[in-house]
Design a protein that fits this description.
By secondary structure, this protein is mostly helical. Helices cover 55% and strands 8% of the residues.
């Protein structure tokens, strides 16, 4: 992602409007894939269905609110609507090595698997 000072750190770079669009597309395709395979998309109270999956603005609002908003409130991550950029707090990012970022990605994948296994 792009640091607040404008420098970047490898895979975490997000300089263009396309970055959050790719994240949005990935989230929508993952949910749609589960629905197409007849798997539960989420808990029964989840608002994602065929109609909401087609509403890009709704999915984007949802993505930026849950759980991103919590990270933004804690000032770990920032989203610039005008620039379409998601960035990480530069002080936090400067403390992370590439191995830390890999561990975070691995943990996220494991958490997703555990979450959906429980549905």
């Amino acid at each position: 992602m792009t640091r607040s000072d404008g420098s970047t750190n490898g895979r975490w770079r997000a300089r263009s409007r396309g970055y959050h669009t790719r994240i949005l597309r990935s989230q929508r395709s993952g949910v749609r894939d589960r629905a197409d395979r007849g798997l539960p998309v989420d808990r029964s109270s989840c608002p994602y269905d065929g109609k909401t999956l087609e509403d890009r603005k709704y999915i984007k609002r949802s993505m930026l609110a849950n759980p991103f908003e919590k990270f933004e409130r804690k000032r770990f991550l920032y989203y610039s609507k005008d620039l379409g950029v998601i960035s990480m707090n530069h002080a936090l990012q400067s403390c992370l090595a590439e191995s830390d970022l890999a561990a975070i990605r691995d943990q996220m994948q494991e958490d997703l698997r555990d979450y959906y296994d429980k549905l």
